Amino acid sequence: MPGATGGKPSAHLWYVDRQGEGASDIWVSIRRGGTWAPPRKLGAGINSDGYDVFPFVSPDGRDLYFVRDFAAFYHIPQREALRSVEP
Fold first, then answer.
1. Domain total for the chain?
2. Which domain holds residue 19?
3. Model's pTM, two decimal places?
4. What phi and psi, each to the nearest 5 degrees, are found at residue 86?
5. Can you say whether the dihedral through the CA atoms of 26, 30, 35, 37 is positive or negative?
6. CA dist., res. 68 & res. 87, Å (int)
7. CA distance 80 to 64
8. Count of C-beta atoms within a 10 Å radius of residue 1
9. What are phi and psi of 30, to 5 degrees?
10. b/e map of 47-83 (b: 16 or more CB within 10 Å)?
11. CA separation (Å) from 35 to 25, 42, 72, 79?
């Protein structure tokens, strides 16, 4: 379920997939120089072993919001989420 941030073109494509350790995890693909990098699963400090779903970025691009286990609403700074996938 891909979701680009609204308004202007984004360099980040956030989506949910069931490939990880959890029931579903949030992944991101980063566009650099017009090419999309292979997607990477966000770090364990963000994804849980439950359902992490419905990612979206605030209009100002600062925060990533998501729902965990269809019961709790979370938000973290987008830069923290992106740091979790850095090599």
1. 1
2. 3-83
3. 0.78
4. -70, 140
5. negative
6. 25
7. 9
8. 10
9. -110, 130
10. bbeebbbbbbbeeeeebbebbbeeeeeeeeebeebbe
11. 23, 20, 34, 20
- Amino acid occupying residue 42: L
Residues 21-68: tens digit of each pLDDT? 668 999 999 998 889 999 999 987 899 888 999 999 998 889 999 999
Q: Residue count of the chain, please give it.
A: 87
User: Which residue reads 């966000």 in tokens?
Assistant: 42
Torsion sign over Cα 86, 38, 67, 79: positive
Tokens for 42? 């966000």
What pLDDT score was predicted for residue 8?
A: 56
Structure tokens at 87: 């090599």
Strand order in the sheet with 63-68: 52-57, 63-68, 72-77
